[in-house]
Amino acid sequence: xxxxxxxxxxxxxxxxxxxxxxVGMYVCGPTVSGESHLGHARPFITFDVLYRYLLHLGYxxxxxxxxxxxxxxxxxxxxxxxxxxxxxxxxKLEPMELVQKYTNLYHWxxxxxxxxxxxxxxxxxxxxxxxxxxxxxxxEAGYAYEANGSVYFDVKKYAEHHHYxxxxxxxxxxxxxxxxxxxxxxxxxxxxxxxxWKKAPPEHLMRWPSPWGEGFPGWHIECSAMSGKYLxxxxxxxxGGMDLQFPHHECEIAQSEVANGELMARYWxxxxxxxxxxxxxxxxxxxxxxxxxxxxxxxxLLEKGYxxxxxxxxxxxxxxxSTLDFxxxxxxxxxxxxxxxxxxxxxxxxxxxxAASGPLNEELDKQVQDFCRDCADAMNxxxxxxxxxxxxxxxxxxxxxxxxxQIKMHELSETTFTLLQETWQTYLIxxxxxxxxxxxxxxxxxxxxxxxxDIRKEAKGRKDYATSDKIRNQLLSIGIQLKDxxxxxxxxxxx
Length: 495
Fold this sequence. Notes:
Elements: E1 3-6, E2 11-14, E3 22-27, H1 38-56, E4 60-65, H2 83-91, H3 95-112, H4 128-140, E5 144-147, E6 150-153, H5 155-161, H6 172-178, E7 194-199, E8 215-217, H7 221-231, E9 235-241, H8 245-260, E10 265-271, E11 274-276, E12 279-280, H9 291-296, H10 308-316, E13 324-326, H11 328-350, H12 362-380, H13 385-404, H14 414-431, H15 439-458, H16 469-477, E14 483-484, E15 490-491
Parallel strand pairs: 3-4, 3-9, 9-10, 11-13
Antiparallel strand pairs: 1-2, 5-6, 6-7, 7-8, 11-12, 14-15
């Protein structure tokens, strides 16, 4: 019986899907304005494991994870900034060219982590019509208003009739006192109101026609529109990082409840943050580590590069709701720990049950069965991957002793030995998503990283990306396709 910690109720709840045998899960995906970093890795690995476990339990899962490729202003609690437009100007690219480049790199990194692809991966720009229609419904219900070509959600009015803060525990009155003065506050009725649609200033690159004039969607509306389209007005699980709990997910709940008449998701699951040497990860600390730098060891905080499986294992060693502190020492310990598990797994693969005459070791037999069966209990207890790995570490010495003959095969029953093999395959490979690392895979990864680093250093504009035949041939040799543009330029995105 699977239990998940529901942020909405702040307690573990037995998971019961709306439709028996079927699960709808929506997870907030990346804003593809730049390279993915270490902080992005945790939610996507966390929800990959949840997806894998739901499939293991026999559910038919529709897993929707969006791509934010529309240039919105993230205005709540920070200075307004359109990251995609800013990145496009810096790199001298068209906004959608920038988006494609970093979407490709994101997909490549997710492949390195061995994450399963979602069932549907919708983009914000591909669902502008749905977002506009949803905004219309919210306005018709009387909870949004137009101001100078922009549309804002009326949080104060919503809070009079609904529980604003149901997810985060925030109180509107407190927000009215503490919210910072930001751009276009004079257009709003209240400082806490958030944008559903923004009027595009002349310099804004990404814009679409709407009933309110040319503009672009706000930060929150895309997830409500896309989750509603593919999962219905109410679905089972909404996931994301804890940093999205407020304002993003709180605003999603408010606008979806007005537009659709019910709470959008029944279970809200949030992973905690990654810190680096005890500090919050952020640009101001200079400790944001891009995944390419993490793999290659090219960040000043890194003593060496770490393989994708080491990073995945490192993340899964800690419960997803606990803070995870990154350090070279912790990753090097994870590297050694993972090597121990692979050694045991590969040894177990080569063993076959062939018991000679001899007594059963009932105590050992029961101990092995208990550790194996406890893996299911751990996963059912709010996806406790750390406990699963701890059980596998307890079983590893048994496997090594069987391999070297200190434990005789007859000391385990054939049923227990089969259970042991099935447990390692099921949990280490199928559910935790770890895979053996072959030297040729690491060589290929090293080649990709070095080329990407070289291109990043040399590129000064869109026509400078990987245009030489030498680089083209090197990229092709390791499986990277180059995209030729009509004007003769080349994108190095991984397709």
